[in-house]
Amino acid sequence: MTDQHFALFDTRIGLCAIAWGPRGINGTQLPMGSEQKIRTRIHQRHADASEAEPTAEVQQAIDRITKLLVGEPDDLIDVPLDLDGVPEFNRGVYDIARTVPPGKTITYGEIAKQLGGVQLSRDVGQALGRNPCPIVVPCHRVLAAGNKPGGFSANGGVVTKLKMLEIEGALVNHTPSLFD
User: Fold this and answer.
1) CATH classification (class only), 88-168
2) Fold that domain 5-68 belongs to in CATH
3) Active-site positions?
4) Domain boundaries, the chain
5) How far apart are CA 29 and CA 42, in angstroms?
6) Which of 104, 144, 146 is nearest to 128 (CA)?
7) pLDDT band at residue 7 using 50, 70 and 90 as cut-offs
8) Distance CA 48, CA 37 (A)
């Protein structure tokens, strides 16, 4: 019997998933285009997870995420996360990202400066690319220099990031290019 669980839930941007254990939420998954792809990804990251009804605390997080994705501001900063096994540097990046309110953004460089120097910007980007809890750790609110969208590793890439920022009312300097 495992103490690691997951549940799927619908949002405005598509089907998402959440994973949790005894110490809190330890994974969220943005839409991947199909239910099977989400289940596969959850099992890749949480091999021993079983699908279950969310606990009251997890259901509250799901409800808040769902509302955020229709434009109701919520920073989700008090949603308990279990980031055991996540490198200390990455946890520092996630802690800073969690302080950015909906509708606002921060740059990779600004986070890097708070952690020791702008030269850490690439490391900040890599940490955000490994974010186990997107939305709760709002990596979509972190932009490249000049408030450009930068990268986004979720399905749909920058389009998904821009959609989430638009829902939150954030202003992003985005000029479509041949590479979008």
Assistant:
1) mainly alpha
2) Double Stranded RNA Binding Domain (3.30.160)
3) 139
4) 5-68, 88-168
5) 8
6) 144
7) very high
8) 17
